[in-house]
């Protein structure tokens, strides 16, 4: 059994509110009877991409399990690399921050789908070629691909402008590759779907949630609901069995 704790969108900004919401998750993880195999955080770690925000995050993510991080649209590559150097292993400088990380029996391909200064996601030809090469490498174990912006519409008039746009080329690269599952964040909602015939799991937002157009509006009248419970996903992989995902919202 291989267990992944999948966190997303803490949006740390130096405030006690953001810090306390993340601590509800990390405190819960520290109480596990055995540590998870890996902790994955799929973007928007900082709210403004400041060095001080990444320093705060690094302190909050001191856990007994290995921690993997990737950038979201609120993150800024250079301070992200510098402030999270102990968590990031990506050659080059600045953007993009692509990584391949082996943790125990599993391999994680961490994609940077962000566009500097924009909210939507893209995978340019160079990134797709890099991904294709990585996925062709032999690997005997579960293979996960993680990124920030999901490659589908939420059917939300605002959020749909900010999703991953290069969907068909991305699907073409994934076709025929031994990918166990895809992991994403960005939409601040717990979602189970498929993409290119592969299970896709989206983690809920830690900082807030985003009500769908048919749901009650946020009590603040804004895009996000900051009063929603912070949550995360637990993905359980057992060879020969379907991936199981459990969503938790610790109080």
Automatic annotation (TrEMBL):
Residue span, Calcineurin-like phosphoesterase domain: 4-189
Classification via Pfam families: Metallophos (PF00149)
InterPro entries according to UniProt: Calcineurin-like_PHP, CNP_phosphodiesterase-III, Metallo-depent_PP-like
Gene3D superfamilies found in the cross-reference section: 3.60.21.10
Keyword line: Hydrolase, Iron, Metal-binding
Family according to the record: Belongs to the cyclic nucleotide phosphodiesterase class-III family.
Protein name (database record): 3',5'-cyclic AMP phosphodiesterase CpdA
Species for this entry: Kribbella pratensis
């Amino acid at each position: 059994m291989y267990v992944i704790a999948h966190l997303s969108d803490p949006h740390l900004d130096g405030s006690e509110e953001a810090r306390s919401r993340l601590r509800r998750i990390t405190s819960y993880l520290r109480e596990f009877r055995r540590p998870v195999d890996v902790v994955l955080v799929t973007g928007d770690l900082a709210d403004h991409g400041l060095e001080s925000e990444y320093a705060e995050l690094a302190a909050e993510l001191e856990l007994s399990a290995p921690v993997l991080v990737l950038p979201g649209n609120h993150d800024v590559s250079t301070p992200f690399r510098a402030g999270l150097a102990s968590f990031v292993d990506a050659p080059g400088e600045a953007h993009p921050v692509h990584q391949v990380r082996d943790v125990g029996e599993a391999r994680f391909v961490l994609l940077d789908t962000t566009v500097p200064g924009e909210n939507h996601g893209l995978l340019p030809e160079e990134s797709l070629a890099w991904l294709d090469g990585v996925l062709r490498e032999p690997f005997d174990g579960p293979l996960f691909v993680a990124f920030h912006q999901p490659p589908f519409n939420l059917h939300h008039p605002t959020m749909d402008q900010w999703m991953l746009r290069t969907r068909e080329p991305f699907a073409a690269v994934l076709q025929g590759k031994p990918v166990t599952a895809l992991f994403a964040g960005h939409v601040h909602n717990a979602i189970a779907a498929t993409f290119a015939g592969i299970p896709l799991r989206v983690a809920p937002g830690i900082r807030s949630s985003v009500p769908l157009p048919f749901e009650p509006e946020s009590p603040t009248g804004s895009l996000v609901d900051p009063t929603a419970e912070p949550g995360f996903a637990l993905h359980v992989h057992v060879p020969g069995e379907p991936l199981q995902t459990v969503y938790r919202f610790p109080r």
